[in-house]
Amino acid sequence: MPAGRAGAVARARLRSRPRGWRATYVRDRRRAWYRVLLSSRVAILALAFLIGVVLTSVLAPLLAPADPQVANPAVRLRGPSAEHWLGTDDLGRDVLSRLLYGGRISLLVGTCVTVVAVAVGAVLGLLAGYFTWLDGLLMRLLDGVMAFPGVLLAIAIVVGLGPGVDTVVIALALVYTPVVARLIRSTTLVIKRMPYVEAARCVGLSNGAILWRYVLANSVSPLIVQATFIVAYAILAEASLSFLGASVNPEVPTWGNMLRDGQRLLSRAWWVALVPGTMLFLTVFALNILGDLLRDALDPRSQERREDAVVK
Amino acid sequence: MIAYVLRRILLLVPIALVVGTVAFLLLHVIPGDPAAVMLGPEATPEQVAALRERMGLDEPLAVQYPRWLARLARLDLGTSIFLDKPVTEAIRERVGPTVQLALYALLIAVAVGVPAGVVAALHQDRLLDRALMLFAISGTAIADFFLAILLILLFSVTLRWLPSGGYVEFSVDPVGHFQSMLLPAMALGLSIAGLPARLVRSTLLEVLREDYIRTATAKGLDLEAVAFRHALRNALLPAVTVLGYALGDLLGGAVVVETVFGLPGMGQLVVNSIARRDFPVIQGVVMVFAGIYLLCNLLVDVLYVYLDPRVRYAGG
C-alpha cells in the first residue's frame, strides 16, 4: 500500500453506514465484544504477534546481541549464522539488533500519531458534526489538508522542522487527523438526531455533557476500529519517510532506513532488505487483520451477516 | 448538471485557499531563520541575507501572505535555491515519469482489483474467495517500496528478465519504455489493488441482494450474467470514488517507488531537495500534487453524478 490516508479511509468505509450507535442496546443481548474477538483463532494469533513485537522492541536493549549502530568491518555482509541470526549489513552491523531497535521507532511513532490524531480529530469531528455553523468552515479546512498527499505533506513538515521522532509525529498526526474528524463528524450527524439525545436535551443537559456522554460514548466503537488502522498506516508512512531520508536522525536504525540500505545491497545481501521489510509487512498485516476483526466484533449487525469478514 | 459542475468548481476555491495557506505556513513553521536553515551551516551571513531578501522574508507576514497568494494565483511557485531556476520549470521537467507511473499503476490496480473482487463475491466464503481476500489484505499491508524491492529481487536480480532501474522515453523506444515501467507500475499498482478488490466484493454482495437482481435471476438469467450485466455496474461506483481518494496516495507512492527504480521523476527531485533542504521545491511539489488531487476529485465527482443519476448532490 502506498503510504497515506486511502487505506485508513477505505477500511472504515467498507461498511458505509455509521456504526456503533446501535451497539449499546443490542450488545447486552449478545456476547461481549472481546469474547467475540477472542473466539477467533486468527485474532489471537495477530494479537500474540503484536504483543511479541511490542515486548521485543521495548526490551531491545536487553535482547539485542550487539549495539545496533556500531560498525564491525571484520564481519561485513555475513549471511544469517549462529553468531548473527539475521546476518550483518555492509558495515558489519548486526541486522537482528537493528531490527529490534527499529521496531521501537515504528511503534512509538505509530502509537503517538494515533493518540494525537484521535484526540484532535475527535474534538474537531464532534464540533463540526454538532454545531452546524462550524461545520462548513471546519470541513473546508480539513478538505484542504486532505488534498495534500500524506507522505509529501509529512516530508515538507519534517524538512521544515528538522528530523526527529517529535516532528515525524506532528507531521503524521496532521495527515491523519482529518480522517478521524470526518469519521466522528459522520457518526455525530447520525447520533445527534437520536431520541435519546433529544431526551437528554429536554432534561437540561448542556451541549458539552451531551457530546461527551452520548455522542462520543456512542462513537467509541468505530473510533477504536479507525484507530487500529491509523496505527498500521502511520507505521507504514513512517517507514516511507525513513526510506526517503525524511524521518528521524539517519543514524538511528528504523525499518525504513534499513530497507534503504538493503536496497543498495540487494544483489549481494538480500537479507539486509528482506528482514526489516518482512517485519514491517507482518506488523501492518497483523494490525489490519485485528482492525477487521475488531470491526466485526464491535458491530453486532456484522455478526449476523458477515459479508466482509474475510478471516475467521 | 451544469449548475452542479459550476457549484463544485466554486467549492474548490476555499479549499484551494486552504491549500495555499498551509503551504505558506509550511515555510514559516521552520524554527529560526528559514533562509539560514535552508542554506545550512556553511553559508555566510551575506548569503543568508541575500536569500532572505530574494524570498521577501524580511517583510512582515501580513505583507508576505497576500503576496504569496497573489503569486500562487499566477501559478508562480518561486525559485529553487539550488537548481537556480523556477520551481515550476523544475517540476515540468520531472512530472512526466511520475504521472505515467501513477496512471499505469492505476490501470494495473483496476485490471487486477475489479475482476478479483467480482470473482471473490461470486465465490463468497469459499476457498477462492478467502485466498483472493488474503491477497487483497496482504496488498494493503505491504509497503509499496518493499514490494518494489521484492519484485527487483525476483525479476531483475534472480531471473534477469527486466531492468532494475532506468527510464526509457516512450517516443524513443516504446518497448523499452514499457519494460522500464513494468516493475515500478506493478509494485505500485498491485500494492493498491486490494482496495478496489475488497470494495467491489463487499458492494457487489450488497447489490446482489437487491430486488432487481432477484427479478433478473427469476427471469432465468444465470448468476454470472446477472453479476456482470446488472450488479457490477452498480457496484463499481464506490470503487471509483475510493480510487479517487487513493489518487493522492498513488502520487505520493509514485514518488517513493520512483526512487527505488531511479526514475527521473518528481521523486528524485523531492529526495534531492530533502538532502539540500531546498524548501521552495518541496513546497511546490506538494502544492502541484494537491492541485492534481483536487482536479481529479472534481472529475470523479462529476463522473459519479453522470454515471449514477440517483446521486443528487445536496450541499456540503
UniProtKB/TrEMBL annotation, chain A:
Pfam families documented for this protein: BPD_transp_1, OppC_N
Lineage: Bacteria, Pseudomonadati, Thermomicrobiota, Thermomicrobia, Sphaerobacterales
Residue intervals passing through the bilayer: 36-60, 105-129, 141-161, 167-184, 269-290
A GO cellular-component term linked to this record: plasma membrane
Keyword Hydrolase on entry: no
Record carries keyword Iron: no
Organism of derivation: Sphaerobacter thermophilus (strain ATCC 49802 / DSM 20745 / KCCM 41009 / NCIMB 13125 / S 6022)
Membrane-protein topology: Multi-pass membrane protein
Record's subcellular location: Cell membrane
Keywords annotated in UniProt: Cell membrane, Membrane, Transmembrane, Transmembrane helix, Transport
Biological process terms in GO annotation: transmembrane transport
Chief location bin: membrane
Residue ranges of domain ABC transmembrane type-1 in the record: 107-291
Recorded family membership: Belongs to the binding-protein-dependent transport system permease family.
Annotated protein name in UniProt: Binding-protein-dependent transport systems inner membrane component
UniProtKB/TrEMBL annotation, chain B:
Subcellular location: Cell membrane
Keyword Ligase: no
Family annotation (SUPFAM superfamilies): MetI-like
A cellular component term, taken from the record's GO annotations: plasma membrane
Pfam families on file: BPD_transp_1, BPD_transp_1_N
GO molecular function: dipeptide transmembrane transporter activity
Protein name: Binding-protein-dependent transport systems inner membrane component
Species whose genome carries this gene: Sphaerobacter thermophilus (strain ATCC 49802 / DSM 20745 / KCCM 41009 / NCIMB 13125 / S 6022)
